[in-house]
Design brief:
Elements (H helix, E strand, L loop, with lengths): L1 H15 L1 H30 L10 E5 L5 H12 L4 E7 L1 H12 L16 E6 L6 H12 L4 E6 L1 H43 L1 H9 L4 H44 L11 H26 L7
Helix pairs in contact: 1-8, 2-6, 2-8, 6-8, 6-9, 8-9
Length: 299
């Protein structure tokens, strides 16, 4: 109950200086929106149909001892596997002809006891599975099918996508750290000014026996509210950016005959953003109050 009373009192204090409050909240919100958008872009990269002109294919090599009838069974299982857009079977004979045509060496089989090339099934994944996690999950599922000897995918494609994803994620976290430091500085300065403006009130409170903990509490709640409101503003800015970018991104994806949408913050992401902002505001206030409150001594 006391928490809500103190929160209400802090809210009333903020409303007494609406211009200053709005300016601080907007600065915090805009600052927090930068790593938030960066995080969203990093998550989008993981779901992006990367290298649209070089869509990856998964090559499934069937075991040599599998009969044609069993190959049809494998094709049927693959056809019902979630995440597969289409399959194409290359028989041993077709693979040998392709090899002879590519190498220029004819009648290779004459010098061999049997055709060493396996039957290969080429899988084209669906667009929403074109991510590191999506491709890996698809590979793990296909490997469980009986008669499959080996599953390969363009590792260069996966590694490139993974590196870009890790790079953008790292940038987002670095920005978050830098901006968190900036927000602590901004709020610390704001709280310092509030302490200076209430110097006489604080001195009176200390003269009548108020503890430092009691005097500190209103400023902690103010920092908490600043952070909370800034987090809400950052959340709103993210969705505005998402709205502004979605149409051109959709048009670009359509031009490549694929689908792609920017990452939308889920409930956990949203709660993490807002709660982290509120905690950051509280920490900034605590740092500032601890530094400046002790300088005020009752006379």
């Amino acid at each position: 109950m006391r928490f809500f009373q103190m929160l209400l009192r802090a809210w009333q204090d903020l409303l007494k200086t609406p211009s200053s409050t709005l300016a601080n909240v907007l600065v915090i919100g805009v600052a927090l929106s930068i790593p938030t958008v960066g995080y969203g872009l990093a998550k989008s990269v993981k779901e992006l149909s990367f290298a649209l002109e070089h869509k990856p294919h998964i090559n499934v090599f069937v075991s040599p001892n599998v009969s044609p009838a069993e190959i049809q069974v494998i094709e049927g299982e693959l056809g019902f596997t979630n995440g597969i857009q289409s399959i194409k079977t290359i028989t041993k004979e077709e693979a040998l002809k392709s090899f002879e045509a590519a190498s220029g060496i004819q009648n290779v089989l004459d010098s061999l006891e049997k055709n060493p090339l396996p039957t290969t099934i080429v899988i084209t994944p669906k667009d929403d599975f074109l991510s590191v996690d999506g491709i890996q999950n698809l590979i793990d599922t296909v490997k469980k099918i009986d008669g499959i000897d080996e599953v390969q995918v363009n590792q260069e494609w996966l590694e490139r996508l993974n590196m870009i994803s890790e790079f953008t994620t790292t940038i987002a976290f670095v920005l978050a750290g830098l901006i968190a430091f900036a927000i602590v500085f901004i709020l610390s300065n704001t709280i310092r000014l509030l302490i200076a403006n209430r110097k006489n009130q604080i001195m009176v409170s200390k003269l009548v026996g108020a503890s430092d903990s009691f005097v500190r509490q209103p400023f902690l709640y103010l920092g908490f509210l600043y952070g909370l409101l800034g987090g809400l503003v950052a959340y709103g800015i993210y969705w505005i950016v998402l709205f502004l970018l979605q149409q051109p991104i959709t048009e670009l994806a359509n031009s490549y005959k694929t689908t792609f949408s920017l990452y939308q913050l889920n409930n956990v992401d949203s709660a993490t953003l807002i709660v982290s902002a509120a905690v950051l505001g509280w920490l900034a206030a605590r740092f500032s109050v601890g530094k400046h409150l002790n300088d005020i001594k009752p006379r």
